[in-house]
Input
Amino acid sequence: MSLDDDARAELKQLEAIGRLRIPRVVDGPQGSRISLDGTEVLDLASNDYLSLANDPRLVNAAHAALDEDGVGAGASRLITGNHRRHAELERVIAEWLRVGAARLFGSGYAANVGTLGALLGPEDVVFSDELNHASMIDGCRLAKAKVVVFPHRDLGKLDEELRARQGRRRLIASESLFSMDGDLADVEGLAAIAKKHGAALMLDEAHAIGARGPEGRGVAASLGVVPDLLVGTCGKALGAYGAFVATTSAIARLLWNRARSLVFSTALPPVIAAAVIAAIEIVRSGEGEDRRRALAERARQWRGRVRGLGGHDDSAIAPLIVGDDQRVMEISARLFERRVFVQGIRYPTVPEGTARLRTSLHANQTAQDLEIAAVALNDAMSQEG
Output
């Protein structure tokens, strides 16, 4: 059989078990309603938590940078792609998060894979929460360190594993707000265990940066915890694209030399950096605090309207576990017919048998939006039940 024949056979197999992924096409900007495959729908799927992706201030900042600097960066940052806007954004992030330095990456995936690969090797041990994002999982594997996966949020088991395993470097890796479950890590407990065992702590705050904590600085900042490495993204609550690692000056300098996903990638377009700087200014302001309060209130309202939602009570991520892969996609399709979009999430994004509707809330959604979506979702679940 040819490679094409093999691909066709594999696609048929995925379709038969309800795991074939077919992307929809968005036309126009992000918002509480979007055009998806030509149909206007209520959006309960995106990560635009603070509703900044189409904010005029970000758009204007990007337009101004486009006029001055063009579109592309032209090369990796270690050649001719290190634009002044990148350097300015790194300074803004470091000052905002109160760390020694920040280093930009092209995406959250690149940040996690590049950072773990830069700092860990065969003589090291990384302790990873079992529900960490795929980018952390892949980063651990590619680093070729010894990987110890501990049960989700099980600090007792983590402490036990750290007592039992030694290495040149030992690093605890966890999300702070888990992207598929919407629950929070015990960040204070993780920090205490790391200190007790002389291990480093890496927190992926992708879904918390901008959306939680003082000035939107995340879960760790709300608890007074300063991890050795904080990974944040610019494409969720900050409304743009890209990612960063906030850390010490020395570690940030080392990433210039060791993080392959940084060294060998073309830099972010300068227009994106300009938009992120505008987003951070909003996030840090009183308006940003108002948006975070609105987001938390939407999350609580949503959980009060829909039965069985998981996640922390004020988390913008509210999953509804369905279990079966095909069933979750059938429910998602029924919702789409009622002009409500909620993505069905299946293995391998989540463990087998835990397929879910991953609903996510946005600051600019209205009570009417949530009521329409809740009626549709409750009806869809009842029909399937």
In short: The domain at 56-284 is CATH 3.40.640.10 (Aspartate Aminotransferase; domain 2). The CA atoms of residues 229 and 247 lie 5 Å apart. The radius of gyration is 21 Å.
